[in-house]
Structure formats: structure tokens, C-alpha cells
Specification:
The protein is of the alpha+beta class. The chain has 5 helices and 8 strands, in the order ααβαββαβββββα. Pfam families: PspAB.
């Protein structure tokens, strides 16, 4: 970072650290111990798809090796969803890491947007821990009906997992991921 960057208040972007995803396993234990939130066994990776044989081949390999389901959202982003028994959070996180790693090593890191793991309490309140690929940080997202958010639950979850995950400090970057595959079981 140069002097001009310091004077203009610019900072170097955080380099994604996919190994941060493994912190989700300990965050899941923390949430289970400190709240009624339990893993749903579902998670997903979101990316901007590109055309081309190499990209299609990676996606096909991932679907066959990991049994992930592909879908496209209303914004045109592709989601690869993995499902496991809710008690197998480590296996779910390993799948999400493998998807991210395969896309990154194939040269498609710039297309990666986020990954998430879903949680739910007995009353049906849902929350996801979302990893922002380009920021290298996590944030909680708790949707409510009518595309509203449960900000109180998001802040509660942030406080609970602060020692387990690198959290996104800028709340304006806590983007909603409405209808994301992986939010529920």
C-alpha cells in the first residue's frame, strides 16, 4: 500500500482465506451450546457463472463428486447446494470448501461471491452464517417473511460467534441473500 492510498483512505482488499470456512464447525458448536440454533445440514456456494468448457467441466465434476445441486437465482447467480445430516457440519463445510477451492484453482476465484451454512431454532427462526469471498469475513443473515430481516437475531448471533469467525465489521456489507439455497434443511 502506497502513501497515496493512505492519504486517500484506501485500503488493500482482504485476500480470501478459504480455510476460514472451517471455523463454521466451531461456530456451529457455539450456537448449539449458547442458543437454540441448530445446523440444518444445508449450505451453499454462490458465484457468477461464466461461459466456457472449463467452467462447465468444473461444475460437472463438483456435481458428480460431491452430489451438490445446482440452481440459479432471480439475479442470474449460480448456487451449488450441499446437504448432509445436521450432525455432520464438518462434512458440509468440507464440501463448501471443496467447491470454493475447485473454482478458485480453476481460475474462477473472481466469480465467487459467498458461501453460507443454515441454522434454525425450534420455533422456525432461520439464520445463515455467510462468508463473503471477496472480504474474507462472515456475517449472520436472519430473514423474516416479506423480505425483512431479524436484526436483533443477527446481532445476537454475531456476539455469540465472535470468537469463532472473522466477522465483517461493516454492517452495510451484511447483504441479504433472500431465498438462498441452503438457508433451510
Amino acid at each position: 500500500m502506497g502513501l497515496l492510498d493512505v492519504l486517500l483512505g484506501r485500503s488493500k482488499p482482504v485476500r480470501p482465506d478459504l480455510d476460514q470456512l472451517f471455523g463454521l464447525s466451531s461456530a456451529a458448536i457455539t450456537l448449539q451450546a449458547a442458543s437454540e440454533l441448530r445446523p440444518t445440514g444445508s449450505g451453499s456456494v454462490c458465484f457468477a457463472a461464466v461461459e466456457g468448457g472449463a467452467f462447465a467441466e468444473i461444475q460437472q465434476d463438483l456435481r458428480s463428486l460431491l452430489s451438490v445441486e445446482a440452481s440459479r437465482d432471480s439475479y442470474g447467480y449460480t448456487w451449488l447446494r450441499s446437504r448432509h445430516d445436521p450432525s455432520e457440519v464438518t462434512d458440509l463445510v468440507t464440501d463448501l470448501h471443496a467447491v470454493n477451492s475447485a473454482l478458485e484453482s480453476g481460475g474462477f476465484g473472481p466469480q465467487l461471491l459467498c458461501s453460507l451454512v443454515g441454522f434454525e431454532d425450534p420455533q422456525g427462526h432461520r439464520v445463515a452464517l455467510v462468508y463473503l469471498y471477496k472480504r474474507g469475513s462472515f456475517y449472520p443473515f436472519a430473514p423474516l417473511p416479506g423480505e425483512k430481516r431479524d436484526h436483533a437475531l443477527e446481532l445476537q448471533v454475531r456476539a455469540l460467534v465472535a470468537d469463532d469467525l472473522r466477522l465483517e465489521a461493516d454492517l452495510s456489507r451484511w447483504f441479504p441473500v433472500w431465498g438462498a439455497p441452503g438457508m433451510a434443511g
